[in-house]
Amino acid sequence: MKACIRDTAAALTAVSTAVVLAACGASTGDEPGEEDGPRIGLLLPDITTPRWETQDRPLLEKKIRQLCSTCAVEHANAKGDVALQQEQMDSMITKGVDVIVLVAVDARSLGPVVTKAQEADIPVIAYDRLAEGPISGYVSFDGKEVGRLQGRALLKAMGDKVPGAQIVMMNGDPSDPNTKSFEEGARSVLAGKVKIGKAYDTLQWRTETAHMNMSGAIAALGVESIDGVYAANDGLAAGSISALKANKVDPLPPVTGQDAELSALRRIVGGDQYMTVFKPFGPEAAAGGAMAVAAARGENLEQVATAEVPTRGGEAVAAVLLTPVSVTADNIGDTVVKDGLHTVRQICTPQLRAACDRAGLT
Question: Is the pLDDT of residue 251 over 60?
Fold first, then answer.
């Protein structure tokens, strides 16, 4: 999309930007009532993490249309490219959307264009990640609690090896503000109980980068010296586990995760991954959609918000902070299955039938 916009920019006016975006794969929001109702821009960060397109986007769109039948949602995905997301923000501002729901690729880099949106009287709702700049609202989960859940689970799984166990920390993308919260929460639980043999940041949350880093950790520390792996999300868990298996590590050390991806739940049932953190997408999308509609209508966001959070500049903004849930093989049925995220049939492939029976997933 980025190349498409650049190649046509010299020949097109701002009015035709929507046509360019459509040609490059973004939604232009051509829905009934678009000319009469509010227009809501939805900007997602990447396609590396499945949740954005498979969970958050459809749930947000559904909630928005439940609350506002005349609202049109205009969507674009930055595919991990900061410059592209800046262009997408500029496009939304040029078209004069009524509100932008933003999951920032890089919170700091998007700050100036968030300011530009404010100057154009377009409120920006930071979704899942606390973007920098003058945002109007924020919807997410308690990031430090996510890390604490991961840390507690890892300590429990390592059992008698604690205190004194050695772990590898596979943190997320440092440009994602949530990464720091996850790590701080985990370290607050792990401090004084484990030795962190190696710690890595993982640009763009890439699974293949986690695989590479874990291979390096194994080479540096030795196969027998890794008692646990703190992986900040399920993609990093997958990369870490694949590296451990490639290096013939058996049995596998406990590995954490986050997002309750279907592949992760299968790994948990099969014994390759110890846990994940379930952040129910429905409540987050419901809050995000409600906040977006309220902002588009010029209503007070405190009608939706249940809390406030400080921005980097120190100002408090209206926020909804939800509670995450720890998921292991013992409670998959009572959490992600009960909530409707995945079914037993989806999780329990024929190869996992015996393990599912042991876990009570029938």
Answer: yes
Q: Which tokens go with 150?
A: 């991961």
C-alpha to C-alpha distances, 23 to 17, 26, 56, 123, 252, nearest whole angstrom: 10, 7, 23, 27, 46
Give the three-state DSSP class for 357: helix
Two structure tokens written together for 232 = 């900040």
User: Using one digit for the tens of pLDDT, what is the confidence trace for 285-320?
Assistant: 999 999 999 999 999 998 899 888 887 777 889 999
**Which DSSP string do the residues of 162-195 spell out, in sequence order?**
-SSEEEEEE---TTSHHHHHHHHHHHHHHTTTEE
Confidence of residue 146 (pLDDT cuts 50, 70, 90): very high
Say how far apart CA 24 and CA 80 lie, in whole Å: 16
* pTM (2 d.p.): 0.77
**Are 102 and 131 in contact, with CB atoms under 8 Å apart?**
yes
Please state, in angstroms and rounded to a whole number, the distance separating the CA atoms of residues 125 and 317: 10
Angle, helix 262-270 to helix 234-246, in steps of 10 degrees: 50
- The DSSP code for 100 is E
Cβ neighbors of 349 (< 8 A, separation 6 or more) are 266
User: What percentage of the chain has pLDDT greater than the value 90?
Assistant: 77
Give the residue from 37, 94, 73 showing the smallest Cα distance to 297.
37
Mean pLDDT for all residues in the chain: 89
Write the CA distances from 18 to 74, 83, 84, 166, integer angstroms.
10, 18, 15, 52
- Which amino acid is residue 212, in one-letter code? M
Residues 21, 111, 71, 59, CA torsion sign:
positive
d(C-alpha 270, C-alpha 353), whole Å: 10
Half-sphere exposure in the Cβ direction for 237 (13 Å, CA): 33
How many C-beta atoms surround the C-beta of residue 155 within 10 A?
20
56 and 284 in contact (C-beta within 8 Å)? yes
